Automatic annotation (TrEMBL):
Subunit annotation: Interacts with PEX5, probably required to target it into peroxisomes.
Listed pathway(s): Lipid metabolism
Chemical reaction(s) catalysed: (2E)-tetradecenoyl-CoA + NADPH + H(+) = tetradecanoyl-CoA + NADP(+); (2E)-decenoyl-CoA + NADPH + H(+) = decanoyl-CoA + NADP(+); (2E)-octenoyl-CoA + NADPH + H(+) = octanoyl-CoA + NADP(+); (2E)-dodecenoyl-CoA + NADPH + H(+) = dodecanoyl-CoA + NADP(+)
Top-level taxon: Bacteria
Protein name: Peroxisomal trans-2-enoyl-CoA reductase
The Ketoreductase domain, residue ranges: 22-181
Pfam families associated with the record: adh_short_C2 (PF13561)
EC annotation from Swiss-Prot or TrEMBL: 1.3.1.38
Role: Participates in chain elongation of fatty acids. Catalyzes the reduction of trans-2-enoyl-CoAs of varying chain lengths from 6:1 to 16:1, having maximum activity with 10:1 CoA. Has no 2,4-dienoyl-CoA reductase activity.
Keywords: Fatty acid biosynthesis, Fatty acid metabolism, Lipid biosynthesis, Lipid metabolism, NADP, Oxidoreductase, Peroxisome, Phosphoprotein
Enzyme class at the top of the EC tree: oxidoreductase
Chief subcellular location: other
Species of the source: Embleya scabrispora
Length: 290
């Protein structure tokens, strides 16, 4: 049986118009989970700013969000580059005024055994996932602190921030940093009216997943018997959690990271199954020095 299915797409726990007149800035909002999150804010009346590198992804955001009637601005931006982030926020202000909410969703990841990872591969994932998240939060907060206005930040994380992530050493370390940053920044910026929270998706397969990750998920299906929920996450479930965390109904929630994964990260057996190395899971032979 597993956990019941959620209400249908289009339903909402929050009152209609909760975000009317508000602007939400979503990094990586043209694909997968970022687009699903942006969609839920749009349904609740927000203006959306979507920032990422690729025009095809920005076009996808415009197309999806247009269906809701929301006003949308897309901006080309690599979050590794602080000056591009400043320019993206300037563009947001030009269209709608200062963003009220920042969804730090953009990230990078690919499975690779730690011993095979190049220094540049490590740096790239940490630079996008950890540094880029901080640079965006910094830009958002500086503007609010200078103006004396409140705001809300939601950083998208991953449960291997707590558990470690064999096969994803770079991303797991970066996400641990992201979770820790939530706790620090919530305290530093709370006195100025800025909430900072984390939101951790469990397994939410989607069409935009990179080939590497899709390939490794080939055996996973909708009613996933490997998870306590006996199913994977529905994209709207993450969108609903994000709209709640950033809403007026969650004003006293700050410094918290909410896990939306049907308890998958808590799963343990009475007896451990045999260890299968990351190399075996990825179909690789023994490591040899190049
Ligand atoms: C093993 C079991 C698997 C189970 C599956 C479970 C899956 C659950 C995952 C749940 C958590 C998910 C977290 C996520 O973050 S999902 C988000 C993923 N989305 C993306 O990553 C989108 C953005 N990604 C990218 O743009 C690119 O993939 C990249 C991160 C590589 C950045 O692109 P950029 O153009 O800046 O970088 P380069 O192509 O120049 O590459 C930089 C270095 O990285 C090396 N590299 C790239 N890909 C791989 C790879 N697949 N394996 C090893 N190394 C890789 C590349 O060679 C460069 O290094 P060098 O210069 O040294 O060659
Ligand atoms: N899907 C899942 O099951 C899980 C996802 N997560 C987290 O959820 C979030 C979304 O993941 P998901 O939707 O699956 O992944 P996607 O690969 O679909 O999305 C990643 C997004 O990040 C953007 N991005 C990547 N690098 C940069 C950059 N340097 N500058 C700006 N934007 C960038 C990409 O856009 P562009 O290429 O246009 O730059 C893309 O839209 C991530 O934080 C991920 O770690 C966590 C656990 C599980």
């Amino acid at each position: 049986m597993g956990l019941p299915e959620p209400p249908a797409l289009g339903a909402s726990a929050l009152p209609a118009g909760t975000y009317a007149g508000r602007t939400v800035f979503v990094t990586g909002g043209g694909t997968g989970l970022g687009r699903a999150i942006a969609l839920e804010f749009a349904r609740l009346g927000a203006n959306l700013v979507v920032a990422s590198r690729k025009e095809e992804h920005l076009a996808a955001a415009r197309e999806t969000l247009a269906e809701t009637g929301a006003k949308v601005r897309t901006v080309s931006c690599d979050i590794r580059e602080p000056e591009q982030i400043t320019a993206a926020f300037d563009a947001a202000v030009e269209s709608f005024g200062p963003p009220d909410v920042l969804i730090n969703n953009a990230a990078a990841n690919f499975p690779v055994p730690a011993e095979e990872m190049s220094p540049n591969a490590w740096r790239t994932v940490v630079d996008i996932t950890l540094n880029g998240t901080y640079f965006c939060a910094r830009e958002f907060a500086r503007r609010h602190l200078a103006a004396g206005t409140p705001g809300s930040i939601v950083n998208i994380g991953a449960s291997y921030a707590w558990t470690g992530g064999p096969g994803f050493a770079h991303s797991a370390a970066a996400k641990a940093g992201v979770k820790n940053m939530v706790e620090t920044l919530a305290v530093e910026w709370g006195p100025y009216g800025i909430q900072v929270n984390g939101l951790v998706p469990g397994l939410f397969p989607h069409e935009d997943m990179t080939a590497d990750i899709k390939g490794n998920l080939a055996g996973t299906h909708d009613k996933d018997p490997c998870q306590p929920a006996m199913r994977v996450g529905r994209l709207r479930e993450l969108g609903w959690a994000a709209t709640f965390l950033a809403s007026p109904y969650a004003r006293f929630v700050s410094g918290h990271t909410l896990v939306v994964d049907g308890a998958n990260w808590q799963r343990r057996g009475l007896v451990n199954p045999p260890v299968v190395t990351v190399r075996q899971q990825m179909g690789k032979g023994p490591f040899v020095l190049p």
